[in-house]
Amino acid sequence: MTQKVAVLGTGKIGEALLSGMIRGGWTPEDLLVTTRRPERAEELRARHGVTPVSNAEAVKAADTLILTVKPQDMGHLVDELAPHLAAHHLIISGAAGIPTSFFEDRLAAGTPVVRVMTNTPALVDEAMSVISAGSHATAAHLAHAEAIFGAVGKTLRVPESQQDACTALSGSGPAYFFYLVEAMTDAGILLGLPRDKAHDLIVQSAIGAATMLRDSGEHPVRLRENVTSPAGTTINAIRELENHGVRAALIAALEAARDRSRELASGTKD
Ligand SMILES: NC(=O)C1=CN([C@@H]2O[C@H](COP(=O)(O)OP(=O)(O)OC[C@H]3O[C@@H](n4cnc5c(N)ncnc54)[C@H](O)[C@@H]3O)[C@@H](O)[C@H]2O)C=CC1
Ligand SMILES: O=C(O)[C@@H]1CCC=N1
């Protein structure tokens, strides 16, 4: 396998991955990008020193093709790539919902496909990327995908049957935390704090809590109990969260995200 990797459809996730790969030691000369708009191509060249090419040129020059277009655009992209693909190519799909069989059904028999669900903390090398092999992907293909996504954070191999659930948890996950911070900052405003101070208090609390969750080895219930003093302030807040069904809302929300991921499987659902 050559060193060259092409990111096809370099939008938010494609660029986050690309920038992390460069931070992780890939040289821009080994990275190709494709975009729909020429202005976007120039932006990527200026920011990262990578070479923008057409989809067909990317297939010619690179062995590893990372497809980061929207699920709804995947069918069109795969049709465009199919005539140019050869036995040495590895397809890595970063799209929500689309199963590896979507590619296998449309490409030459035996084409290796790896499915990856990453997330936007790739921008700060704290991504969670969940990796599954298609029918023809070997251990070497999986290791190659892990090396690429390992440049932007943690990786975990899962059976493909768990990908939609993982998409709901970690793919979309950062959005839930951003949403919580937004809502808690609003609460700070209600309590009379200036927005910037409320934001700083909540963000630092989130960073502290996340670090404890990662590093303390303690169960989240125990960590929460340690904050919750008898007849104190926290338990009053927890009672309100329970009264408003926040736990049930979160469970329902992630189930809805999982269902939407399943719905995207055909690659044509708007
Ligand atoms: N945004 C997120 O947090 C995450 C997104 N994903 C997945 O990553 C994929 C991309 O998502 P985003 O980066 O958010 O979308 P985006 O819209 O920012 O990027 C997609 C890019 O693909 C380009 N594109 C579309 N068709 C093309 C074609 N035929 N040739 C070349 N370029 C083409 C678009 O112009 C766009 O710039 C989706 O499949 C999504 O499910 C996965 C994990 C997290
Ligand atoms: O919302 C979405 O469909 C994408 C996939 C996971 C995160 N963002």
TrEMBL record:
The keyword Oxidoreductase applies. It comes from the Bacteria. Its EC number is 1.5.1.2. Pathway: Amino-acid biosynthesis; L-proline biosynthesis; L-proline from L-glutamate 5-semialdehyde: step 1/1. It comes from Streptomyces griseoviridis. InterPro entries: 6-PGluconate_DH-like_C_sf, NAD(P)-bd_dom_sf, P5C_Rdtase_cat_N, P5CR-like_CS, P5CR_dimer, Pyrroline-COOH_reductase. GO terms for biological process: L-proline biosynthetic process. It catalyses: L-proline + NADP(+) = (S)-1-pyrroline-5-carboxylate + NADPH + 2 H(+); L-proline + NAD(+) = (S)-1-pyrroline-5-carboxylate + NADH + 2 H(+). Residues 160-264 form the Pyrroline-5-carboxylate reductase dimerisation domain. Its main location: cytoplasm. Belongs to the pyrroline-5-carboxylate reductase family. Catalyzes the reduction of 1-pyrroline-5-carboxylate (PCA) to L-proline. This is Pyrroline-5-carboxylate reductase. It is found in: Cytoplasm. Pfam families: F420_oxidored, P5CR_dimer. PROSITE patterns: P5CR (PS00521).
